[in-house]
C-alpha cells in the first residue's frame, strides 16, 4: 500500500514526531485530497498537553483544516473530480486529520476553491454557533438562506477576542479565532459589532465588519462601561473566543435576561437559574452525522461567497520545513505570539 509522511503524537501527552503511514482509500461518499496546506490551531497543542476526550487511539494525527487537490473520489461522489482544488475541515481521526500529506474528506464538505487552509475551522465554528439548529447552535437564519441577509439589523453583538480566526469569521482561542464570526455577523446585519482585540488590529477588524474595537488590555471590569459608550441597546449576544474563566464570566454578566453566550472552551461560568441566559459550547465541526445536512448547505455556498468577496480568508504565515515547522508554530501559539494571522504548513516541503 502507498505510504506518506505524517506528523503525529505517538502516545497521549507525547511529543510530536514524523512518521510513515498508509495512504487511505476514500469511501463511497469521500474524496482523497493531496494536502498542499494545513493550518495550525491552539487545539493542536492543547490536545498534546492536556488530552482530549475525542482522541482515543494513539498514535494520533492531529490538524483540523486544510486545502489541497482531489486525487481520488468515491463511487457515489458527484461534487468533485480528480484535480479539483478544495478546502475543508478535518476531524479527530487519523483518516481525516491534516498533519499529513494525504487526507480523506467527506465530499459534500469540501468547497471548490483553493483559498488557503486558514478558512475552515474558524468559519465552521462561527457558523455552527450562530446558525446551527438548536441544541447545536443559536438557530439564527444564515445569510445565504432566503431572508437571512441583513435580517438582524439593529441587534448588537459583543465578540471577545476579535482578531482570532474564529472571531474574524465569527477552535480554541488564540488572538486569531473570531474574525469569521465578525464577517458572518456583518452579513446577517448585526450592528453594532463590538469586539475586544489588540488595537493594532483595528484596521483589519473594521475592514471585516467590526464597528467598534475595545482594547483587550483594559480590565474586564470595564467591559460593560466600554460597551455602554457604544450603544444603549441591551446586550443579548456574546461570542467568547478567548474563553478563559474570567472572560466567560464577564461576557455572561454583560448579558441581559434571555441573552446568549457562545464560548470556545468548556464553560466555567457561574450561572443562576433565574438569570435565564443560555450558554453554548462551540464545536466548529459538521462531521458528526446530526450536523452534516446543515454543514452541506453551508459548504455549497462557500465557493460563491469567497469568489464574490462576501467572506475573505485570513492573512497567513507559512511555516518553514513543512510538517517539521508545526512544532515551533504551536509553541508560538501557546505563548500568545500570534495575532491577526494564521499559521500554515506545506506538508510536501517536509525535509
Automatic annotation (TrEMBL):
Please report the stretch or stretches of sequence annotated as the Enoyl reductase (ER) domain.
Answer: 11-344
Q: What's a Gene Ontology MF term here?
A: oxidoreductase activity, acting on NAD(P)H
Q: Which domain of life is it from?
A: Eukaryota
Extract the InterPro entries matched here: ADH-like_C (IPR013149), ADH-like_N (IPR013154), ER (IPR020843), GroES-like_sf (IPR011032), NAD(P)-bd_dom_sf (IPR036291), Trans-enoyl_RdTase-like (IPR047122)
Q: What is this protein called?
A: Enoyl reductase (ER) domain-containing protein
| Native organism | Serpula lacrymans var. lacrymans (strain S7.3) (Dry rot fungus)
Amino acid at each position: 500500500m502507498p505510504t506518506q509522511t505524517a506528523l503525529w503524537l505517538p502516545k497521549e501527552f507525547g511529543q510530536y514526531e514524523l512518521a510513515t503511514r498508509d495512504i487511505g482509500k476514500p469511501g463511497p461518499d469521500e474524496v482523497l485530497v493531496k494536502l498542499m496546506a494545513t493550518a495550525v490551531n491552539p487545539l493542536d497543542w492543547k490536545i498534546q498537553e492536556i488530552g482530549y476526550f475525542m482522541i482515543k487511539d494513539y498514535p494520533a494525527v492531529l490538524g483540523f483544516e486544510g486545502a489541497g487537490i482531489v486525487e481520488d473520489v468515491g463511487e457515489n461522489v458527484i461534487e468533485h473530480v480528480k484535480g479539483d482544488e478544495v478546502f475543508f475541515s478535518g476531524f479527530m481521526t487519523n483518516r481525516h486529520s491534516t498533519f499529513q500529506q494525504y487526507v480523506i474528506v467527506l465530499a459534500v464538505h469540501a468547497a471548490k476553491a483553493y483559498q488557503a487552509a486558514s478558512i475552515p475551522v474558524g468559519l465552521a465554528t462561527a457558523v455552527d454557533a450562530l446558525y446551527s439548529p438548536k441544541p447545536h447552535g443559536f438557530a439564527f437564519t444564515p445569510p445565504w438562506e432566503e431572508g437571512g441577509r441583513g435580517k438582524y439589523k439593529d441587534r448588537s453583538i459583543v465578540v471577545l477576542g476579535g482578531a482570532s480566526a474564529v472571531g474574524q469569521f465569527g477552535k480554541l482561542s488564540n488572538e486569531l479565532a473570531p474574525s469569521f464570526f465578525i464577517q458572518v455577523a456583518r452579513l446577517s446585519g448585526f450592528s453594532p459589532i463590538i469586539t475586544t482585540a489588540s488595537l493594532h488590529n483595528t484596521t483589519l477588524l473594521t475592514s471585516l465588519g467590526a464597528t467598534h474595537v475595545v482594547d483587550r488590555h483594559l480590565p474586564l471590569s470595564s467591559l460593560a462601561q466600554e460597551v455602554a459608550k457604544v450603544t444603549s441597546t441591551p446586550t443579548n449576544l456574546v461570542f467568547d473566543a478567548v474563553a478563559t474563566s474570567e472572560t466567560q464570566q464577564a461576557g455572561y454578566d454583560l448579558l441581559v435576561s434571555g441573552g446568549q453566550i457562545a464560548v470556545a472552551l468548556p464553560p466555567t461560568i457561574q450561572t443562576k437559574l433565574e438569570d435565564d441566559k443560555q450558554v453554548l459550547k462551540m464545536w466548529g465541526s459538521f462531521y458528526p452525522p446530526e450536523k452534516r445536512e446543515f454543514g452541506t448547505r453551508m459548504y455549497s455556498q462557500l465557493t460563491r461567497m469567497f469568489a464574490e468577496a462576501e467572506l475573505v480568508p485570513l492573512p497567513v504565515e507559512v511555516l518553514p520545513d513543512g510538517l517539521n515547522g508545526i512544532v515551533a508554530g504551536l509553541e508560538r501559539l501557546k505563548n500568545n505570539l500570534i495575532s491577526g494571522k494564521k499559521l500554515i504548513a506545506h506538508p510536501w516541503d517536509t525535509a
